[in-house]
């Protein structure tokens, strides 16, 4: 089973333009995915980053998720009907075929870059609807094997 590192970040103002950035890393490759919405929250976009990263994988992998959001690491145990229950259920479904571990780290390598990428997407990107249908994945990402 291939090992993948997934680093996630989000940016925005609750109820306004919010966006996410996810970076997938393998031993040889690194790819970024961004997206967002016009009416959301940074917390919801962080779940979106996690979902986009997991859905980008085309085969089962051992995934380590790095985030500076301690609430996300502690809150991923059950896909309950509470806050963001709908997207948590989607994340659990996407994670089912992978071995996923979460690591909280205050500032992981590249976290500032990912937050800046999410912020730039929120302020200058083309966003629509409460949630975008899916993240943008370039052709080279599709051809690399894992994504």
Verbal overview:
With 147 residues, the chain is an alpha/beta fold. The protein has helices spanning 42-55, 70-74, 85-95, 111-124, 139-143, and strands spanning 2-12, 18-25, 30-37, 61-67, 99-104. Helix 1 packs parallel to helix 3 (85-95). The protein has a five-stranded mixed sheet. The chain has a single domain (2-128), classed as Nucleotidyltransferase, domain 5. A hairpin with a 5-residue loop joins strand 1 and strand 2. It is built from five helices and five strands, in the order βββαβααβαα.
Layout of strands and helices, then pairs:
Blueprint: E1 2-12, E2 18-25, E3 30-37, H1 42-55, E4 61-67, H2 70-74, H3 85-95, E5 99-104, H4 111-124, H5 139-143
Parallel strand pairs: 1-4, 4-5
Antiparallel strand pairs: 1-2, 2-3
Brief characterization of the structure:
The chain is of the alpha/beta class and 147 residues long.
Features:
single chain; 5 strands; 5 helices; disordered C terminus; 147 residues; alpha/beta; five-stranded mixed β-sheet; Nucleotidyltransferase, domain 5
Going by helix content, strand content and strand pairing, the class is alpha/beta
Sheet of most strands: 5 strands, mixed
The geometry reads as: globular
Q: Figure out the total of helices.
A: 5
Mean pLDDT: 78
As residue ranges, the low-confidence spans are 127-147
Query: Considering DSSP H and I runs of 4 or more, what fraction of the residues is helical?
Result: 25-40%
CATH class: Alpha Beta
SSE run:
EEEHEHHEHH
Q: Widest sheet: strand order?
A: 3-2-1-4-5
Report the portion of residues in β strands.
25-35%
How many β-strand runs? 5
CATH superfamily: Ribonuclease H-like superfamily/Ribonuclease H
**Distance N terminus to C terminus?**
14 Å
Radius of gyration: 14 Å
CATH topology: Nucleotidyltransferase, domain 5
Under the CATH scheme, the architecture is 2-Layer Sandwich
Please indicate the count of domains: 1
